[in-house]
Give the backbone structure.
Amino acid sequence: MNGNDVIGFNLTQHTPKSVTKIVILGAESTGKTTLCRDLAAHFNCQWVSEYMRTYLQDKWNDEQKTCTWEDLLPIAQGQIALENRLAQQAELKNDKYIFCDTSLFELMVYAHWYYDDCPEALTKAALAHHYDLILLTEVDIPWVADDLRDSPHEREAISAFFENMLNRYQIPFKKVGGNRLERVRYVEQIFNNM
């Protein structure tokens, strides 16, 4: 596949040393957003929403169209711009943590899942970005339909694909599952042992 025109796409990550950055990855409808919200509330800090969801929901509402190859780099740019802005705010507020509901790595994984390819600029950025903790959500909650989700029966396979990609690039991660309270307590336990 051809790469997108990457001129003008700044995918550089801002990583404040004073803030611990946690990213939550996983298949659709596995509780990533809920976990981010719960952790941000529990630790009284900010969380970064999934820019792709807003971008694609607007596209669906306006055009009744889903994600295409041409959307990948604009989504990546929007995600990292949002993450960088909130990371700077967290740094100014002296927050200890910031929780990210996805990263460019997740976008890269989905590019390979759907297109068997990924724009080179996105791959380079995804592999260069740093998080202090990477969590992969288990497929242990019911799938919930919406305008964008399309893989209710492939969540296990997608989750295994995420795990394979993380292992392929030797990126350490921890799996998180259970109910909402169990997930928050698990992350709290990780922090206590860091």
